[in-house]
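Deviations from the work plan: none for this task. Representative record:
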Amino acid sequence: MQAERITSVRGRALPMRGDDIDTDRIMPARFLKAVTFDGLEQHIFEDERAGSKAASHGHGIHPFDNPHYAGASVLLVNSNFGCGSSREHAPQALRRWGIRAVVGESFSEIFFGNSLMIGMPCVTATALEIRELMDRVEERPDTIIAVDLARGVCETDGYSCAVSIPAAARDAFVTGAWDTTGLLLERYGEVDAVAARLPYIKGF
Amino acid sequence: MGTTLLQKVWDLHSVRALPTGQTQLFIGLHLIHEVTTPQAFDTLRARGWTVARPDRTFATVDHIVPTSQRTRPFLDVLAEDMIASLERNCRDFGVRLAGLDDERQGIVHVIGPELGLTQPGMTIACGDSHTSTHGAFGAVAFGIGTSQVRDVLASQCLAMEPLKVRRIRVTGTLPPGVYAKDVVLTIIQRLGVAGGVGYAYEYAGEVIERMSMDERMTICNMSIEGGARVGYVNPDQTTFDYIKGRPFAPAGEAFDRACAWWRSLASDPDAVYDDDVEIRAEELTPVVTWGVNPGQSIGVAEVVPSGREPGTDPAAVRDALEYMQLQPGRPIAGLKVDVAFIGSCTNSRLSDLREAARVVKGRRVAPHVKALVVPGSASVKEAAEREGLDEIFRSAGFEWRAAGCSMCLGMNPDKLSGDQVCAASSNRNFKGRQGSPTGRTLLMSPAMVAAAAVAGQVTDVREMVN
Ligand code: SF4
């Protein structure tokens, strides 16, 4: 089974500043109480969005409430984004909201893997480059950013930087092999052979 | 040149190199629960797939189950819907389920080991990040997302990237009043919440070798909070003694053959590591978190940082202190707590409850504190009751609950309200983690939680036990 080939993502961006943004913040646990992922996008960062509406601290408006960023398809983040709980609900919600690629300093591995499985590439750039991209987008929210996976670059009007992604993940996106179930089911005979050799399966 | 346990187990389970450069790994045990599986089963149905190895799959309910009022249908219709959906999925796909009334029910990471399902040398997967717990047995155990749960259900395999191995040796002797929880919180504080990204953590050294399985599980459980995908301890006699006689353990001569195989999987003495770290046990004290991630912690006798300390990020410290409503430079001891929670897959096993009971015995919970003990499984609950621990807790003013994740996360009726401060034996102090968007969590050992409950404030447990 072949999934869509993803070679590049182009669109407006949304800067979400901060290190170590965990998946409990992205998607508070009470919204996991559902048997489908439908509608999750409405609850992205719900608690802190409510908080920034209520409180006077910070810059007031949460990026996900900022009308300038509505319709963005590239998310800009800092380091260790998506740490904590393995809930796929976090990347699912981002994707359903419209995010098609995430550009950040670094990602937690589970978040990275979950995003891979749903066809949302996470690529990395240096802290300086991320800051430059965020500054530009905050100044001109209609800036168009293009993330090219095959060439490993992120480009915007008058600025470009290299982005990286592990080769395996890049190949999965560009060849459409990111939906792994089909791949794993392909040669089931070999799986059975491995299982049959394991003492805890064949009996000690 | 020797090999690590991770490499041995990896090689034994690898099916082939995938065209994506990942490895297709066979998964020996798949544990599932109500929260991260419904969408995966839906895909199986939609594509006409079956569960590849129901014999290697085991389900329980933990995250959303109420721990006091458990009659069905639940008052919370969404929770009822999730449980009913897991029950139907297990029935339709032939998966064994330790459901709400089953004597084997409990937090998935507590019951796997307890039932003897978790064994050395296995690859284990579960749609929950704390699956790293099972590494305490010398298993390689991955926390995965829902799409990967679908992969494992359908194919009993995962597509995985290779991991590096960092050995963390805890040497010397732990001072009294310092527990496994303090060890792992210190590791995370020193190496950082993202320090383990790309690594498996192998815990070694005399301190780890002398630890019970319960303690090793506490350590491995929190590997993920240090960014490591998996954490493990090499299997030894302590491991084998724990497994012996458990329902799913090999019995008789098969058990002896199993031990020999398990022993052979331990990292070789001359194994080469990608990184090696030593932690001296003598330096350790009871630890309390002051911030909004598990790496933001200090010793109980220390003061809350200001962000000016070398190596700290001033903006992150400021943000955390603002959320926690803490003044920099104030001692963490003496901070008033509103709630005391003993539970979660990190610290809800029998030995945790015993240590907490030792502190509580003959004392009373401070009048302003709501205190609860939530055993990790129905069988921990029963064992504790046989020893009379429930009586010690109840007569001190603790609530004694039924098994589940409870106040570790805000998915069931046990939640913080408003900006309550909670002394918690769980594993995450993220903003809003305990169900209130402004709730504040202080992570610590169960004995320290017990001390805080009694004193009504953060207290050095070493002053309360001999
Ligand atoms: S106790 Fe907490 S961390 Fe453990 S499985 Fe339950 S919710 Fe997750």
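The beta strands of chain A are 8-16, 74-77, 101-104, 122-124, 144-148, 153-156, 159-162.
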